[in-house]
Fold:
Amino acid sequence: MIGRLRLAASALGLALALVPSAHAEPALPPPYAGAYQPQGVDEQGLWRQMDEEERRFAESDMVIRDEALNTYVRKVLCDTVGQDRCGATRVYIVRVPWFNASMSPNGLMQVYSGLLLRVHSEAELGAVLGHEFGHFEARHSLEELKARRSGTDVLSWALVLANLAPSYDMVRAYRDLQLTIIGNFYRFNRDQEREADGLGIRYLNSSMLRPQAAAQVWERLMAEFAADARAKGLKKPRFDRIPFYSTHPPEAERAATLALLARPDAAQRDDGATRYRAALAPWIPQLLDDQIKLNDFGASEFLIQSLAEGGWTAPLWHARGELHRMRGAPRDLANAATFYGEAVALDPNHAEAHRGLGLSLLKTGQPGPGQQALRRYLTLKPDAPDAKLIGMMIPQEVPAP
Amino acid sequence: MRQGFTLPAQSGKTILLLRPAIKVSEQSTGGLPEPRAEWTDQARAHIDAALVEVQRQLGNTVIVAPEAYGEDARRVAEHMALFGAVSEAVIQYQFFVGNRLPTKKRDNKAGQFDWSLGPEVARLPGADQADYALFLYTNDQYGSTGRKMLQIVGLVAGVGVTSGVHAGYAGLVDLKTGDLLWLNADGQMGGDVREAEGARKRVRQLLEDFPGSAIPKEDAAPTVQPEATP
Structure:
């Protein structure tokens, strides 16, 4: 029994030694160089699989195909990582109202529309795109596949070997090993994210954009999470702790590191906020509409307020009205009417604001001005899809018999 | 198979083949699929060739869907995704009697098979030249040497280790109405798709109940595997 145990224990020791697998490979050309072709059986496999996925993904209905917006986002990526690098990627803007972007090993980059709503300048967008490009340049998917594979290999052998000597100690040793390997895997993932953050800020440092913007992205995101928690009556979330299963480093750590790594003498550079606002202006109404429909009052209110730091506009007032009207408590409707009022004061031809104003006023017992606003809506947009429905809320002048 | 649908042998129908979804990987010792580009390419070539051959034996012509652009390409992508969703529902809820959807329970008493992709399929590129559309999906993972070693040691240790995954399904859709006419799915298929002969065997198995077919049923599972995975 003891002999068996020792054998199994030494097998476990061997297994542990294998986990932090060191890769000593000949240097490959960077994956963005020229028309790079994947090297080695694993990289070729991953790329081919993603190529097949991309065939379908490129035709997906979730992709926003507007040419101007796509050209603009692509230009920000190229301005950040440089013309020599960005040619290796295809950027797809996906209509998903969350803060995220992702990168596939073959150069397919997904940018969620929710990210476009949450960053305020070219430099901030470039910080996130640069981070994703860092994953691509450092071949993180491939490294992750290898790490995952060696981890699960060891674990499977340990399971089978531990079963040869199924004692209490053995079970405990196996569970310890399991936790170690799983923990190691998440740590590996977090370290990849740290590396990508490092690469991302390096691109920004050597670009024409202001690298200090990278930390701002995370600071604003933390503020959004805090506002959301506050609105839900939850405890303020902790941004400095690393949970066992977290795939990314904590936000506070990322903000602090990025602030530290940003070139101090570049702080005076232009961050492209004005250009960004101009390019995104036609999209803000739709992006806000998608966000409001998440039914996440605290976060949506925070996002509208933070966009309004650059000045309130009719679409922002309208979105705020929609947010409050959707929640629909009587006090929300009173607030919504005020916000819609601000919107039509700024832009008297904003049809949807007249619609929201009319509906809110009708519900708060002011049929006169409410119907007037609805009439204005129908005049501005006679072929609106809900024209007949709205028409029924307005008393028609009955022609004399 | 959909009720009332018959396709007599040698009826000379034209079948539109949409790009088959083919995945071939190696299964690592720990059971992870490692995608293999070369195997996938071989499987795609062999399966395409085998399909044409098997359908010719049935008296049907296979035409490959033309390359689509713009709106057409999006329609194809949407219908491929829709077929995936519908066939998953059929496999989940129709093939297993105890697992019927509440809304499909009454229909199923008569042994009905009533699923459809909708009449929009008629607007797929190439649909005007064909009678039916054939969708095909295969997912293969071949056990690595390490996986097989683990399996052997596992046998001694009393741990069930499976090696390899070989799943596939194929479906036939009426291009006029969008009705799903026939669907065959198998989680343990035979035939090594990386080779021409194996791919022919796989295609024969996928099409073994194909309407109007006289392909004799074969024993699908090559070896009996223990069912547990670590």
Observations:
- The two ends of chain B are 37 Å apart (CA to CA).
